[in-house]
Structure formats: C-alpha cells, structure tokens
Amino acid sequence: MLSQYLDLCVAHPDALVLFQVGDFYEAFCEAAETVARVCEVTLTQREDSTGTYPMAGIPIDNAASYLQSLLDADFRVAIADQVEDAEEASGLVDRAVTNVVTPGTVVDDELLDRASATYLGAFVGGESSGEDGPETTDSDEAALATLDVSTGECQVTSASDDRIRDELERLAPAELLVSPTAAVDPAALGFETMVTDHEAAAFDLDGADETLSAYVAEPTAVLDSTAERRAVGALLAYAEYTQGGDGALDYVSRVRRYDLRRSLRLDANAMRSLELFESRHPGRGDTLLDTLDRTACAPGRRKLETWLRRPLIDRGAIERRHDAVGELLDRPLARETVRDHLAGVYDLERLAARVSRERANARDLRSLQATLDVVPEVKAALSDVGSAALCDLRESLDELREVRDLIDRAIVSDPPQEITEGGVIREGFDDELDEIRASERDGREWVSSLEERERERTGIDSLEVGYNQVHGYYIEVTNPNLDRVPDDYQRRQTLKNSERFYTPELKEREDEILRASDRADALEYDLFCEVRADVATESARIQAVADALADLDVLRTLADVAMANDYARPEFHAGGETGGIRIDAGRHPVVERAQDEFVPNPAALPRGSVALVTGPNMSGKSTYMRQVAL
Length: 630
Description:
Distance between the termini: 60 Å
Strand order of the largest sheet: 3-4-2-1-5-6
Mean pLDDT: 90
Number of strands: 18
Strand content: 15-25%
Shape: globular
C-alpha cells in the first residue's frame, strides 16, 4: 500500500496526496507530518517489515474543512480514491487520483463561496506594453482567460499587456497559470492568488488548439488571437487535469470572448477607492455591492457582481437595461412575484455542472427539477412585459419539460443522500426493478408473519423474530423456554438470557431477500446513473436558463433598490462640446446608509472641465468626489 501511495506521489509531485483507506483519507511519511500540523490531527505510525513510518488521516465524511485548511496553507491536494470494490479486489485495492483540489478549481459546495465566482485564470503576457486598442500586434498582445470550474463559465480577452494586468487585478482569480514568457510577481498583485507553474507545453499554440477543439468546433473562428487561444487552451488543459482527465469538463459548453474596450475601465485602485466590493474599514463599513444586493438566488448575486466589475459604456445597452429596470419599478406585483419564485430556486449553474461531472446525487436532481418547475411561473409573471430586455429574457426561459418529467418519473420525492444503497428510484419507472422489489417485499412479508406462526407452533408466547447485520434473521427464545424448541431449529447465537436460532426455510428466505436487495440496489444505481447522464446531455440548455434567471434577478433587484432608496433614472444627451455631467441632489449610496441624515449635493461638470474641490479637513471632500464617481 505504501508503494502504491508513493507511486501516486511521484505522478503528482506538485500536490499533497491523500489516499483513501476505508472511511479515511490518509497521508504517509513527510506528507503525514504536514497534514497533522496543518489540519491539527493526530500523527500516528504504521509498521511493517521495512520499518516504521508516520501516518495521519482525515475522515472522508468531513473532509471539506480539512481541505480548506490545506488550501489556506497554499497546498494543492491530490485525492486518490479507491476505484475498485474492496470486496471484489484480489489483493490490494486499486486507487487512482480522481481530483486535484486547488484554490482555483474547487467544486465542493462546502469550499465554495455561494455568492461569488471562484476563478481559475491563465495569463499570456505580451513582450512589450502598447496602447489600448486594435493596433496591438501579436508580439505585444497579452491575454487573460478565466474559468469558474463550478459553473463552466469560461471567458477570455486580449489587449495590451498593461490593460490585461489591470483586468487580472479586477477579476482577482484564486489561482493563476502564467505563460513561460510572462512575468508575474504574486507579491506585487493587489489580491491573494496561487501562481501555478503548469507545464509550458500547455501554452504552445498547437497544443492549445488541440485542447480547445474539444470545446469549440473551429477555434480560429471564435478566437482569432493567438494569445487568447494559448491562454484558453492552457486553462482548459489544467482544469481537465485537476478534474480527472478528458471529458471532465463537458459542461463547459462555450468559450466567450469579450472586448475590454466595450466596458468601463476600472482598475484595481479605482475599485478599492470606490469601495465597490471591499470596504477600506473591514467590519465597519458597507460596499456598493452590499448596498445594491437584494438578489434572491446565488446566480443572481454572482451576476450582479459581474455587472459591477464590468460596467456598460454603450448607450443603447445601458438604456435597454434601464428600460427593463424601469418597467419592473412601475410593476410592483410582477416584481414581487418574480422575487418570491426566485427565492425558492437552487443554484442552477452549479447543479448543472455537478450533474455533468457525475458528482450529483438524487437530491441534486430533485433540486434541479424544483428549480426548473419555477420557470413556467416566472414566464407567466412576465407574460405582458413590453421592454426589449424582459421580452428576450421571457423567450429564453426554456421550460425543459422533458428534463423535469424524467426526474419526476425516475426519482422519489424525498431521496436519501446515498445513491448506492437503494430507495432512490420511483416505483413504476423500471419493470425489472419493480419485479425484484416485489420479490424482496414478499420475502420480508413472509418473515414478518413468521413470528406469529412459530408462536402457535411452539407454544412459546415470548418467541421473537429479529434481524441484525452481523447474524441476519433469527428466532430468539428465552432460556426458560429452551426445552420447547423444535428439532428443526439450529443454533445461531448464544446470549446471556436467551438463544437465537434459524430454520432451513428461514435461511433460504434470508438469502432470497438479501440477493434481491443487492440486485435492487445495484440496478437502482445503474438506473440513476442513466437518468443523470440523460440530464447531463441538456446541460447547455440548463445553463442558459440559469443565466436568464440570474439576469432577471439582477434587474428585479435594481428595481427594488431604486424603489427603496428613491433612485432616479439618468437621462443621456448627445454629447458634443456642451456635453458633460449634471447631478441634482446627488447622494453617496453607501455613506447615506450609515448616516441618520445625508445632505444631497449637486454637481455640474461641463465636458473637458476640471473641478477643484476645496474645504477644511473632515468636510466631506472625498465623500463628494466618490459619490460623483459612483
């Protein structure tokens, strides 16, 4: 077993290997000392003919908290699971690394922030820094690709090196792959991240195109930039490696390219100064995100954060969004109906990804169905909307009736957590399973009536029929009645005050029941996997619905906030020499929440002007400047 463990360590030299032994993940030798220290668990020892070596383990059922401790200590963790049934194994049980857990590739709900995306990033740096815009050449073009492994959201952009580094700080991926030609100093970044030295070959254009071709039919048609293709290819190759190899990311149904010139440029300093996502006084102040966040579901919360990180600059797109917010503002009943329905939905984006990764259990499928059941109700609430954005969202809400029907027919309404121990598949879904269950049920009914029959036959009123997992079915007779035991009783177990027996017929029935139970459990598991696989084929449609619900949740949220805070819709003008910004009775949206009273302030800034703000200390100059900026 130690040899098997060390072979896996050699195959994953950049990770700490945790090795399944029964109900625990174990580490040995130096790795055991690390696990014991970081996770604060007991360091024990194992001894064999070659000597004594350290060992430390964590319980599989409660692994998440220990994994978080290892991630916080900057370790990657390779999970080596038993990939062979211990009862069927001949000799040593085979094990293989099924998942490499890193800060940027976590998929366990207990390790994820429900309200924020967790990004894995890949940075391809340019050789020189140029100006923004299309005049960048291949030599000075840089690219940043990001992937949220928990949802399948994959996006990429390219620009000059300095602009991409700004975008890197804005998105703040939890883990970053860096091309061999780029230089990134983690200490110089304005956020915490793990910089991973992935194999350089993954960034080669040919290798990147080969990886990308599994996700995009014609990579060059979608991404004409070589830097973007290299970044996305390396990103997906590394994510595949961490999730178990080819096919592990089938739910990444599209790679989206975006242009930085189509959104407001917000560097990390601006975001920090304006306290968009982080307060300068942690624990003592709100952020703009806190002020605006009235979202009802997790995908909506993540979408709101995305919109704030990348504000629109196209007037048509802004007014389209404002039209939708305005209509929802004017229709409180529709807005409240949508909010009530969305409050009951589960995290559809991550559910779809979990189904595709074959990590979903029966409860996950039921949660997915419950969320899809909301879609017709939401569409009905939007039945007579008029704004273009809301009309498009209504049309994109695919009801996925066949998926909902399949889950409802196949999975019991309240399934157990485990999917290998039966009780998952609904009666009537599969004829063979129903027959096996009927056979098992008949056997159990025969056993349940045995007690009354044996009491009549033996005259022993205290006789009992029972079952335990060690000895199976038994007939229990107390010591004073042992002289009345029939000749066909065979002793199974001796207790202090009684004896337990079985009869040949009871043993035969027991074998039939157990065989039927094992067959039923195995067939249920196979049927569940088939249902899950069928649902996974619709992952792209499910993700599209999740995206639409998230957009709708944010639009509804902005309408709610506008109503609660008496916000006004801005009016746009054509610009030109007389253009600029004029704000009447402006307020700082965050500061006013912390004040008993806030005095509104106007601002009039003609195009091209510079305003000099003066006043004594503590007079509110910085608040005024920030409220205008916000």
